[in-house]
């Protein structure tokens, strides 16, 4: 119990100190905004202001919101430019015959960003007028692209991410963990992982619910998951089963994650993106839950960990999307549990160093290996097996 209290107090002190640093770090944000605004063209600023995507004083939350709004408007303007080209090919006489015919032509060409009146006006434009509109649409597309780059450069979680403390508000954390939709406060079944231990046991792990805890300056990701293990108890004793489940959690597990460091670096002529990620995690696990059994009498343990994680893109489709990347990770964990945990494992607390590597494909499929390297509990290394895992992320 003393070790648990000491661990929790140490974590709280570290997070508190980190929050104070983030506060002072954020005070230089205004100067950073001013310097980067000078890089934007007057035309880009004009269009962003017209669309309500501009403010002389931009904080982190507003910068993140503007970035995602630019991304949505960019999708719309790209679609609009395609439709404009389709409209130019429509027969003017046929379109203007009657309302029913016009509606049929609009539906046939899947024109959604121009109404019937606008289509009719475009068809009656002179060539110079059409060219002016085409240039205006192109300027608007360029402005949104510039806006995305600008706001992304202020938002440390993007392709232009900088080192140190990316999450200063919950919106940034939601964007990083859950993607581009800021309406996503939580995710259901964020990933499913099938794991095969080299001792013959199999595990199925799923992150069932993920959410961002909206704590100012230190937003934390909370994940609730479950791990089911299938073993041949005639070949593997209960002690080794317990040891091999340590990296993947119990039947019920809750994880709190906060990135201490995140950065991205463009490397080489092809601009391969190198990501460096250092999270701090606390994971609580319960296993062997039985009916009418008090929670205090169940098998439970906790893991306090940190990982140095590196990934580099091997194949990219554009500046922001990775088709395939290689990752390496070195994870240090401190495990501690209740009496049942100590009886099963042989010790109440110990440390473990693990090595992870693998390949992630299309930001959706991951093939990884986990190898235990070192522990202050020698018996753990002698019995714990390396494992291979396949992870699928249906929510992406």
UniProtKB/TrEMBL annotation:
Signal peptide: 1-19
Domain of life: Bacteria
Keyword Signal: yes
Keyword Signal: yes
Keywords: Signal
Name of the protein this chain belongs to: PorT family protein
Annotated source species: Sphingobacterium puteale
């Amino acid at each position: 119990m003393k070790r648990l209290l000491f661990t929790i107090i140490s974590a709280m002190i570290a997070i508190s100190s980190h929050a104070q640093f983030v506060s002072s770090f954020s005070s230089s944000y205004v100067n950073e905004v001013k310097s980067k605004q000078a890089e934007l063209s007057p035309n880009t600023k004009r269009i962003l202001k017209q669309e309500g995507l501009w403010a002389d004083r931009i904080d982190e939350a507003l910068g993140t919101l503007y970035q995602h709004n630019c991304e949505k408007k960019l999708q719309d303007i790209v679609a609009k430019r395609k439709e404009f080209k389709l409209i130019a090919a429509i027969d003017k006489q046929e379109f203007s015959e009657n309302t029913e015919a016009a509606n049929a032509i609009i539906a046939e060409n899947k024109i959604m960003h121009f109404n019937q009146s606008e289509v009719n006006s475009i068809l009656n434009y002179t060539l110079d007028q059409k060219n002016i509109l085409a240039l205006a649409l192109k300027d608007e597309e360029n402005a949104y692209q510039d806006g995305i780059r600008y706001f992304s450069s202020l938002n440390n979680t993007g392709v232009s991410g900088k080192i140190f403390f990316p999450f200063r508000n919950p919106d940034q954390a939601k964007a990083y963990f859950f993607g581009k939709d800021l309406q996503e406060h939580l995710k259901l079944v964020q990933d499913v992982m099938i794991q095969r231990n080299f001792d013959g046991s199999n595990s199925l792990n799923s992150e069932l619910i993920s959410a961002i805890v909206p704590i100012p300056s230190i937003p934390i990701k909370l994940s609730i998951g479950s791990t089911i293990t299938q073993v041949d108890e005639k070949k593997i004793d209960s002690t080794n089963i317990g040891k091999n489940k340590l990296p993947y959690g119990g039947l019920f597990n809750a994880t709190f994650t906060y990135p201490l460091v995140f950065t991205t670096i463009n490397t080489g002529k092809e601009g391969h993106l190198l990501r460096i990620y250092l999270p701090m995690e606390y994971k609580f696990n319960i296993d062997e839950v039985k009916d009418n059994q008090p929670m205090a009498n169940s098998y439970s343990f906790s893991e306090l960990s940190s990982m140095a994680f590196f990934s580099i893109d091997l194949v990219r489709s554009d500046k922001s999307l990775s088709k395939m990347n290689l990752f390496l990770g070195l994870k240090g964990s401190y495990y501690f549990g209740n009496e049942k945990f100590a009886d099963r494992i042989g010790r109440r607390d110990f440390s473990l160093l693990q090595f992870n590597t693998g390949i992630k494909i299309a930001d959706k499929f991951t093939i990884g290996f986990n190898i235990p390297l070192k522990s202050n509990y020698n018996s753990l290394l002698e019995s714990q097996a390396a494992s291979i895992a396949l992870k699928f992320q249906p929510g992406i």
